[in-house]
Design goal:
163 residues; mainly alpha; Arc Repressor Mutant, subunit A; 3 strands; 11% strand; globular
Amino acid sequence: MATTSATSGERLAPRELQAWRGLLRAHAALRRELDADLEREHGLALTSYEVFLFLEDAEDGHIRLHDLADRIMLSRSGLTRLVDRLERDGFVARESCPTDGRGSYARLTEAGRAKLAAARRTHLAGVRRCFLDHLSSEEQELLGDVWERVLPDGAAQCPGSCG
């Protein structure tokens, strides 16, 4: 495992700072570009697309809203507002949780599945254009290994291979 030259509490060394800031900048830039692609082509935000992916891959075709909020890293209130919009647009349906009167599930409707299928082509083309095409196969494999080391168990879970 790699080690750092600086001790805890000290400033990051230049290579450490470059690695950290590079990750943050790349993530922000890639999300912006992928979001813009989906908005322009499908009128769909990237966070909505991510909700669709998790719902598509959910066991039994639905997922509890609080679990969904955790997976897409939105506050519960933020997810509630997003699901409200997706439900209003006919892409998602809510179902009551039979074991918890306060909880509810979300599931994709047929219209949501169709929207996801159309948006998937745009999203994957953007992932390739903006990210994967800049890396060799070996670099892609190396990055995959790095993310597995960096992320805690389970945090690397990505629905449908993020497709």
